[in-house]
Design brief:
Number of strands: 12
Shape: globular
Radius of gyration: 24 Å
Number of helices: 18
Mean pLDDT: 83
Oligomer: single chain
Largest sheet: 5 strands, antiparallel
Strand content: 5-15%
Length: about 450
Amino acid sequence: MSGQKDKLKNLKTSSIDRRLSIVKASLLAGTRWATSNATTMFSNEEEKERKRKKALKEQADYLVSEIGKLKGSIVKIGQMMALYGEHFLPEEITQALNTLNNQTMALEWNAIKNHLQNELGDKYYELHIDPEPIGTASLAQVHRAKRISDGLDIVLKVQYPGVANAIDSDMNLFRSMIRLTNMVPQTREFDQWFEEVRDMMHREVNYAVEAATTRRFAKYLQHDTRYIVPEIIDEYCTQQILCMTFEQGVPVNSPVMFSLPQQRRNKLGEASLEIAIRELFEWGEMQTDPNFGNYLVRLGNGEDIPDQIVLLDFGAIRHFDQHLLNVAHNLISAGYHHDLDQMVEAMTGYDFFNNIPASIKPDMAKVFLIATEPFSNKENNPDIPEGVMDEHNRYNWKNSQLHSRVMQRASKSMASRYFSVPPKEFMFISRKFIGAYTFMTVLDAQTNIRKMVTPFLIQPA
């Protein structure tokens, strides 16, 4: 953790200060962008494109550095735009926004201490709180604590003061920045997505909802020893503090994980994927933030004590309506059977699908068949690359290069001109599965996802 000199004394949540900073930076970036465009007037097309990309990267890097200085909710907005914005933001902008994930400087203890005392009142003195945070983020930081009366180990997720009230003004600032720079096309899809990010931000700071969701998932998984969900401790929860039991574990990408035997890594991978399957097919709600920081692994002994996945964060839960679930189920079912006609038939129910001419749909369906390749098997899918799936239908995620193959096929598809921003719910599901696939790749796990979905797709006679 950084030393005290590297921490912030306070957060600037004044809308006037933040607006002045963003407007100044946006105007400067916009002027530079216009100037760089003017200098390419007499260049050939290839040179224009090279200079345009270079200028866009420079301006995006500059703006992101200015956003990072403000911290708080505007940083979280940028992080969300990077996570879900690849469909409508230029690559140079999403790459720059991704650097915001590294800007997690903590707030000084004195500021946090005063905030805790105001929120907890006399209950503050019932706890021994470690002043050094064990985790920091754009909207909150986490402190480990011990209840003095019985020694219970807990953690306090402390929302930074003022960030919840600054969300709407920060959203407006971010939109102003985008408009002033003229670096992103202003479309209806972008506006809809922007409002979705606003809603997500407000859900992120609603700790009462997160506490209820944590309890709900704990109930879903109460009889499955592969998972650990922290227990909410109500007496120390407030509007801006979420208190739960401290759960020990190691990060997913910890070096110790790579030394585990293949079988143990496979089981952890199966457990991770099964959560996503049950969220989509059984519970109708999904944790849509695939950040590895939301998970820990509590290692067993490889014999009678199993490895367990600790689920830490339930602030980004999305509920899906039955219409979306039916469409998603049908798409996965088509991939399960590796049936082109079934995939074409499943591609309906949203403008994203319905605007594609019938003659072009089969070409796009082939893209989806690659994306759902792990649900198929070698008997019905002769296109699975050699060495990617074994005789037990275990999929080798690391060797598959699945994401890059999907992107390559999509770019070459005759339907590429009809690709628009898909329904936001599909973005959430896609991002969740990409996160799960990445989990498999990092673990170098080989898992049978087909077996997991079979009970939901094949009804008993």
